[in-house]
């Protein structure tokens, strides 16, 4: 079981950088605007409250030199803003603002925008610093995955022991201690990597005093410290009871364990997606119940598998153990379904986001894995029922009925018929117990559970569909006032069913120099649509320049390229290749005017 866990951790650790929940709603100055006078400050407004870093803003002048600014802060009474003061005098030309903040759900988010003073300059702007450090992101993702896995193992084993009451020969103290130790180490790693993860710095900066003290002042850092304190308190209490050979009453033990489990689960739900967005109190309760039910089911599943492996003989495993776990799993699945439906509605916001956003597609993959898990659980439930019936002999369930005459003397004994075997003495033998098949189905469940855990970790690091859709609409909306970007709408038709629509491509600012490219696909019904591939190129036939590939990438609902250079003015030909399926694609074009 450890090998698949490590493989999935490495897979997630080498995945693309995680998206965050906070989305930039607006900026002042607006992206791409030309101002007559230099602004005194830059203000960004997000869809939720954000945390600021020591280097939240990096501003570059037209000569690619960094501008000295004041410390970043919030606008008065607005925790959803980030603001930085600018020098009194700014030279004429185009400035680049690279920013990075931490959203309320603990994930960092970054981006860049431009504004010009007096006029635009064609000189290329300074590229922003790398948005992510791959090593830090990989280690942080692996630590998050191991934390989820170890929490499920620890709480699930405790629930399995408390409710299912397995035999002492199962030695369940081993997986419980392994879960507690892994949770302690992974939570410590998350605390150390918190500052480098936020700052996009190397992992070697994790042990600096400034990084450790900064993390202690943030909400994710405080929750991680609370998690570590709870774990250390639980370990110290268990050690004290064991060394002094004390035993608490069963009710006191169960009550203490329940409070500890809820407190540990809150350190997750109070720092992830549930802590931001709509209906936060309800979302935190739902997320906590979802996490506890997941731990009871999947962690209890690992404990049952461990028990089955350490019970080679059928007679060594009481029938009540798998039967009780079957009931525990049923209750857990019911809670998971109710809370999962609510969290999916809250995260998606619409049916369209289920297929048009990365969050929705990841959720579909998780639902498929959960379906496989439920099928394996149904097999386990079938074998558990057979195991229960096999342990109850027929003679014990109903006493044999002996016919007696209604009146008269007793019937004489009948002579044995020749050729008929004598009936064996004692109760009939019980059917063979399908313990081997139960082991296999539980192992299949455990394999699917590892996949579910991996997808759950990926979901917590992905921007929810509701926020992604809002970001796409904000990006596609034209700016108010004087237009500063070139917006081109090109219809397309692949000739296949459902292969019609239009692609809206925005070049911002639509002038010579560095531009951002953003494309949105609209389907036949006029709503946002997702396509597997989109390529946008530009060609200047008069100067025999091109085609230049913009290299737009899918951002979950829209396509964009943050920096694309147009070297010359003139009438360019924009070509868009849209692939709507494995076999259907079409290339359409339109003229685009690029000015100086």
Largest sheet: 5 strands, mixed
| CA-based gyration radius | 32 Å
Q: What is the β-strand count?
A: 18
- Specify the number of helices: 13
Shape category? globular
Strand content: 15-25%
Structural class: alpha+beta
Low-confidence stretches: 1-20, 123-130, 394-400, 414-433, 474-483
Assembly classification: single chain
Percent helix: 40-55%
First-to-last CA distance: 61 Å
Average pLDDT: 76
What does this structure look like?
By secondary structure, the protein is of the alpha+beta class. Helix content is 44%, strand content 20%. The longest helix has 33 residues, at 358-390. Residues 1-20, 123-130, 394-400, 414-433 and 474-483 have low confidence and may be disordered.
Search tags:
alpha+beta; five-stranded antiparallel sheet; globular
Provide a concise account of the structure shown.
This protein is of the alpha+beta class.
List the helices and strands and how they pair.
Elements lengths: L1 H12 L10 E5 L5 E2 L5 E6 L3 E2 L5 E4 L12 E3 L2 E8 L7 E11 L4 E10 L16 H31 L8 H27 L9 H8 L2 H25 L6 H20 L10 H30 L10 H29 L4 H4 L1 H33 L3 H4 L37 H26 L4 H12 L9 E8 L6 E9 L4 E10 L10 E8 L4 E5 L3 E2 L4 E8 L3 E10 L5 E10 L2
Parallel strand pairs: 2-9
Antiparallel strand pairs: 1-3, 3-7, 4-8, 5-8, 6-7, 8-9, 10-11, 11-12, 12-16, 13-14, 13-17, 15-16, 17-18
Helix pairs in contact: 1-2, 1-12, 2-3, 2-6, 2-7, 2-12, 3-4, 3-5, 5-6, 6-7, 7-8, 7-12, 8-10, 10-12
């Amino acid at each position: 079981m450890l090998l698949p866990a490590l493989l999935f951790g490495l897979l997630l650790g080498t995945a693309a950088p995680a998206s965050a929940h906070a989305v930039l709603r607006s900026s002042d100055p607006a992206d791409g605007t030309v101002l007559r006078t230099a602004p005194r400050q830059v203000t960004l407004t997000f869809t939720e409250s954000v945390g600021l870093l020591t280097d939240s803003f990096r501003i570059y002048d037209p000569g690619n030199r960094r501008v000295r600014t004041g410390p970043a802060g919030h606008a008065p009474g607005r925790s959803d803003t980030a603001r930085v003061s600018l020098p009194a005098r700014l030279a004429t030309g185009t400035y680049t603002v690279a920013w990075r903040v931490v959203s309320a759900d603990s994930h960092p988010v970054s981006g860049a925008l431009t504004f010009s003073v007096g006029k635009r300059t064609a000189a290329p702007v300074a590229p922003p610093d790398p948005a992510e450090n791959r090593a830090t992101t990989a280690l942080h993702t692996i630590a998050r995955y191991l934390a989820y896995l170890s929490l499920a193992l620890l709480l699930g084993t405790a629930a399995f022991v408390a409710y299912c009451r397995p035999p002492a020969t199962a030695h369940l103290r081993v997986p419980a201690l392994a879960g507690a130790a892994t949770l302690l180490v992974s939570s410590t790693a998350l605390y150390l990597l918190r500052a480098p993860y936020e700052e996009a710095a190397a992992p070697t900066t994790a042990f600096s005093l400034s990084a450790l003290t900064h993390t202690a002042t943030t909400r994710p850092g405080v929750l991680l410290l609370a998690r570590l304190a709870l774990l250390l308190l639980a370990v110290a209490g268990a050690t004290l009871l064991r060394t002094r050979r004390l035993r608490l009453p069963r009710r006191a033990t169960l009550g203490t364990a329940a409070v500890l489990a809820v407190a540990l689960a809150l350190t997750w739900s109070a720092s992830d997606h549930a802590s931001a967005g709509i209906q936060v109190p309800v979302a935190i309760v739902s997320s906590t119940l979802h996490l506890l039910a997941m731990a009871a089911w999947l962690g209890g599943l690992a404990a049952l598998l461990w028990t089955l492996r350490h019970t080679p003989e059928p007679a060594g495993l009481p029938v009540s153990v798998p039967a009780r776990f079957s009931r525990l799993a049923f209750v857990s699945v019911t809670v998971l379904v109710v809370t999962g439906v609510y969290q999916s509605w809250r995260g998606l916001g619409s049916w369209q986001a289920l297929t048009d956003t990365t969050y929705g597609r990841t959720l579909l993959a998780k639902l498929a894995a959960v379906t496989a898990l439920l099928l394996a659980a149904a097999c386990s439930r079938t074998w558990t029922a057979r195991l229960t019936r096999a342990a109850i002999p027929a003679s014990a369930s109903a006493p044999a009925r002996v016919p007696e005459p209604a009146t008269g003397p007793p019937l004489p004994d009948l002579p044995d018929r020749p050729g008929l075997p004598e009936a064996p003495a004692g109760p009939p033998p019980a059917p063979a117990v399908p313990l081997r098949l139960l082991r296999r189905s539980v192992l299949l469940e455990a394999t699917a559970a590892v996949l579910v855990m991996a997808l759950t970790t990926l979901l917590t690091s992905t921007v929810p569909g509701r926020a992604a859709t809002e970001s796409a609409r904000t990006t596609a909306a034209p700016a108010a006032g004087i237009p500063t970007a070139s917006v081109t709408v090109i219809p397309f038709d692949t000739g296949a069913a459902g292969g019609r629509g239009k692609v809206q491509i925005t070049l911002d600012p639509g002038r010579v120099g560095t531009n951002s490219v953003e494309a949105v696909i609209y389907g036949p019904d006029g709503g946002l649509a997702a396509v597997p591939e989109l390529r946008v190129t530009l060609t200047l036939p008069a100067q025999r320049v091109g085609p230049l590939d913009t290299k737009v990438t899918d951002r979950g609902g829209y396509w964009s390229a943050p920096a694309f250079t147009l070297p010359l003015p003139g009438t360019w030909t924009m070509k868009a290749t849209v692939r709507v399926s494995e076999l259907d694609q079409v290339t359409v074009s339109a003229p685009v005017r690029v000015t100086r």
